[in-house]
Amino acid sequence: MPKSKVTRPKAAQKASTILRSQSTGKNSKTAAGSALSQTKAPKKVTSKKAASAASSVLKDKRTSKASKSAAGSALSQRPSKKKK
Length: 84
What we know:
Elements: H1 9-20, H2 26-37, H3 48-59, H4 65-76
Helix pairs in contact: 1-2, 1-4, 2-3, 2-4, 3-4
């Protein structure tokens, strides 16, 4: 079941900045694109590929605060794993 979260305007603005930057890495852009696509779409969820990219962005010490903000937003919209 999809989470009913959306990307907040502040995180969406940062994601937009990341996507326009030429010096931003591929993982940051993947996570930012996912976060931006979920700005007004509460039924959308982050894909497995985008969640993996967002996770690596958050672990990387070299990434900017804007990249981490967008990655965190994208990752928070991924459905949690169900344990049986």
